[in-house]
Write a structure and sequence with these properties.
This protein is of the alpha/beta class. Helix content is 38%, strand content 19%. The chain is built from 13 helices and 17 strands.
C-alpha cells in the first residue's frame, strides 16, 4: 500500500480521537523508520519514548522467535510464566524494589498505584491524592483525574473525588495541601507532556520528607522518564530519593504493550488476591522483550547519559543561535525539549519533510526522545535539520 492509501483507510475506519500526521510507517532499521512510499526518517520520537533499542534489534528478534516457537503467547495470571518472573526479578534487582505488578500501559500502572494508595489508606481515613499542575498520568478515569491539566478533563466530569493539585517544584504549595487524609503524592521526576521539566533535587527530597511525616505513599511516575532515558536505569536514581511506588511502561516492553507498578518497602503486600488484576499483564511475549531491554539497561543508560549531554549541547546551540524563535533548551539524558516561540506543529512538519521525526510536548515544546542507541552522529544530523528549519522560519 502507499502512504495515501493507508491514510485514507485509517480516516475511513478509525474513531476521530487522534490528530495524526500524514505518514504511514512500514518498517525500520536501527535509528531509521521507512514509510509506505520508501522514504526514510531519522527517528527522535521512538514511538513516544517506547522503542529504546531502535528497530530490528537482533536480541529482540531472537526472544520473540523463541516465544513463537513455544506456541504460547499468553497464559493469563492464573499461572506463572518464566518470562514474567524473570522480568520482575530484573526490575527489583536494578531498582532495589521488592514486588512488581504487570499490566499493559502507563495509565494502568498508575491506576494500580492509586488503588494501592487508597487501599493502604482506607483503614487510616486516608483517601486524598496530591498530584501536580501540568502533569500527565494517562487517559483512564483515575489516571486522567490525577493528570493536572484541565484540557484532558474537559467533557468527562465528574472526575475521581479527593484529588488535588499542587505546583510542580513548589514545595510550599504541597505543604498547604498536606494533611492526615493524604494517602499519596504522585509526581513525575521529569514532567513529559507538561513540557520536559525536570524536578529540582530539593523538591523531591522535601516530598519524601513530607510523605514520611504524614504517613503517605510517594509515587514516582516514570512511565516516560524511566528505563534508562535520563542516564540512569531509573530517573529517581539521579536524585537519590527513593519512592514507595514507581510506575513504568513505554520502553519496558521493547515495543510491545507492557506496564508495571513497582513496590518498595513501604508499599509491599498492599494487594491481596482479588484486589486488582490485568488479563494480559505479564504477557509472555511482552515480558520476553522486557528481559532483553532490562538486560541492556545499564549500557543504554550510559549511552543516554553521555550522548544525552551532547544532545543538550546541540540544542542549547540552536537556542543561542535563534533567540527570537527558541526560549530555552532543557531536559535530562535522552529526554530533551526546546521551548519555542514559533508554532511547534509547523516545526514538526518541516522536520518531517526533511527526514527527521520529532514531536511536541505541552503547548510550545519540541520534544526529543530518541531510541537509547542514538549516537553523536545521529544527534548531529538531527540538530542540523532542526537548525535548518529554524533558520527558514
Amino acid at each position: 500500500m502507499t502512504n495515501a492509501e493507508v491514510i485514507a483507510l485509517g480516516k475511513e475506519n478509525y474513531m476521530k480521537n487522534y490528530s495524526q500526521f500524514p505518514l504511514a510507517i512500514k518498517g525500520g532499521k536501527g535509528m531509521y523508520l521507512f514509510d509506505e512510499d520508501g522514504k526514510s526518517y531519522l527517528d527522535f520520537v521512538a514511538g513516544i519514548a517506547v522503542n529504546a533499542l531502535g528497530y530490528g534489534d537482533e536480541d529482540e528478534k531472537k526472544a520473540l522467535l523463541e516465544v513463537l516457537d513455544s506456541g504460547v503467547l499468553h497464559t493469563s495470571n492464573l499461572y506463572y510464566n518464566s518470562k514474567a518472573v524473570q522480568a520482575a526479578k530484573l526490575i527489583n534487582e536494578i531498582a532495589g524494589s521488592s514486588q512488581v505488578f504487570f499490566c499493559n500501559s502507563g495509565a494502568e500502572a498508575n491506576e494500580a498505584a492509586i488503588k494501592m494508595a487508597r487501599k493502604r489508606g482506607s483503614a487510616k481515613g486516608k483517601s486524598t491524592v496530591i498530584s501536580f499542575n501540568h502533569s500527565f498520568h494517562g487517559r483512564t478515569y483515575g489516571a486522567v483525574t490525577i493528570t493536572g491539566q484541565d484540557k484532558y478533563h474537559k467533557g468527562f466530569s465528574p472526575m475521581l473525588p479527593d484529588v488535588v493539585y499542587a505546583d510542580f517544584n513548589d514545595i510550599d504549595s504541597v505543604r498547604k495541601l498536606m494533611n492526615d487524609r493524604v494517602a499519596a503524592v504522585i509526581v513525575e521526576p521529569l514532567q513529559g507532556e507538561g513540557g520536559i521539566i525536570p524536578a529540582d533535587a530539593g523538591f523531591l527530597s522535601a516530598l519524601r520528607s513530607l510523605c514520611d511525616e504524614y504517613d503517605a505513599l510517594l509515587v514516582f511516575d516514570e512511565v516516560q522518564c524511566g528505563m534508562g532515558r535520563t542516564g540512569k536505569p531509573f530517573c529517581f536514581q539521579n536524585y537519590s530519593v527513593t519512592p514507595d511506588i514507581m510506575t513504568l511502561a513505554k520502553a519496558i516492553g521493547g515495543g510491545l504493550p507492557l506496564g508495571a507498578a513497582v513496590a518498595f518497602e513501604k508499599a509491599v503486600d498492599i494487594f491481596s488476591p482479588g484486589d486488582h488484576a490485568a488479563t494480559f499483564g505479564g504477557n509472555v511475549a511482552s515480558c520476553a522483550l522486557a528481559c532483553v531491554v532490562l538486560s541492556k539497561l545499564e549500557a543504554l543508560s550510559g549511552n543516554a547519559r553521555v550522548n544525552g549531554m551532547y544532545l543538550k549541547e546541540k540544542l542549547e546551540e540552536i537556542a543561542g543561535k535563534y533567540p527570537d524563535k527558541v526560549t530555552q533548551a532543557r531536559g535530562m539524558g535522552f529526554m530533551q525539549g526546546l521551548e519555542l516561540k514559533v508554532p511547534v506543529k509547523d516545526v514538526v512538519l518541516q522536520c518531517m519533510e526533511k527526514g527527521l521525526l520529532v514531536c511536541s510536548a505541552g503547548a510550545n515544546v519540541l520534544r526529543f526522545v530518541p531510541p537509547l542507541i542514538a549516537s553523536a552522529d545521529d544527534i548531529d544530523k538531527a540538530a542540523s535539520i532542526v537548525a535548518q528549519v529554524m533558520g527558514g522560519m
